[in-house]
Amino acid sequence: MSFIKPLWRKVNSEESKGYRALLASAFAFSLMTVCVKQLKGQIPIAEIVLARAVISLLITRIMLKQYKVSPWGHSKSLLIIRGLLGTAALFCVFKAIEELPLSSATVIQYTYPTFTAIAAWLFLGENIRRRIGIAVILGWIGVTMVVNPNWMGVEGINGLPLRGIFIGLTGALLTALAYVCVRKLSQKEHPLVIVYYFPLMSIPVSLPFLWGNAVWPAGIEWVWLLGVGGLTQLGQIWITEGLRLLPVAHASSISYAQVLYATLWGTLFFSENINIINLIGAILVFLATLISISSRRQSQTKLPILN
User: Fold this and answer.
1) Is the backbone of residue 204 left (phi > 0), alpha (psi -120 to 50) or beta?
2) What single-letter DSSP state applies at residue 131?
3) On the CB side of 122, how many CA atoms lie within 13 Å of its CA?
4) What is the number of structural domains in the chain?
């Protein structure tokens, strides 16, 4: 258990902020998935994406004005690409949550650290350090055990629909590519600018899908929609800050913590059963997070932090 020892050392203050930001982001995103699941497919996915985007756009614009930051940034092309990738990933994630049990949808989504580590190596030249590589692999095994797959099943893994699984994996791949863009952009863009372009792209993309399909929310559905928007905004701000302070592969492996949250919410709110295999998988995910946090990040140029 030597990997735990570095946890007791004095941690660089900005590094510590990166850890806290990512864990807080995972918590916010996990509660966001609960809100999506509570809508029970009564609201079209595009409408959920649109509601999330409008709320995020308004909040981010206010924050940009507060910090006196221009919303348009410098690398406009990459900012647009990041926004489009994030929007496509969001469609996939919300659809997977709608079609699959909450814990399973989250677990499938959290195969993205593997894609992220590879993409960061290919596009950013970030080395996959041995300890981070172990954390990613251990976490992937953990999330697989949480799904409790029956690889010989014809209809799908553990009885899950193959379409839902494919949508979830596609969302994971798009998420990884979006996070690599965030890492690249964070070298010279303000975190709020990166966050701003996400809803800025989501609104025009989602509107065509609502032509003739829009549904006016009723009662408690308004609460869940506001929850999706507000919690996603918090998650985006925190994960953008975390990715600025930590290498992509390192940061994404810490985000496995969302699997633990989702498993808990699935049990508490949706009566999703947990067996011994699920429990062992959750423990492996937790160990992967500990290994990742204990690994000393490589020195890198810092940007002014968002207070």
Assistant:
1) alpha
2) H
3) 10
4) 1
State pLDDT tens for residues 163-214.
888 899 899 899 989 989 988 898 889 988 998 999 999 999 999 999 988 8
Model's pTM, two decimal places? Answer: 0.78
Q: Are the CB atoms for 80 and 256 separated by under 8 Å? A: no
Residue 91's nearest CA partner among 78, 103, 76, 109 is 109
Q: How big is the chain by its Cα radius of gyration, in Å? A: 19
Determine contact, residues 275/148, Cβ cutoff 8 Å.
yes
Task: Choose among 4, 255, 249: nearest CA to 109.
Answer: 255
Angle between helix axes 276-294 and 130-147 (nearest 10 degrees) is 160
Residue 215 lies inside a defined structural domain of this protein: yes
- Residues 93-115: pLDDT tens digits? 999 998 888 878 887 887 777 78
User: Taking the CB of residue 149, how many other CB atoms lie within 10 A of it?
Assistant: 18
Q: How far is CA 27 from the centre of its chain?
A: 10
The answer to whether residue 300 is domain-embedded is no
- Termini Cα distance of the chain: 35
Query: Which residue type, as a one-letter code, is found at position 165?
Result: I
Its sign, for the CA torsion 127, 114, 288, 94, is: positive
Answer whether residue 301 is part of any domain.
no
The answer to whether 30 touches 258, Cβ cutoff 8 Å, is yes
Q: Print the domain residue range for 243.
A: 2-294
- Distance (Å, whole) CA 43 – CA 48: 7
Q: Does 306 reside within a domain?
A: no
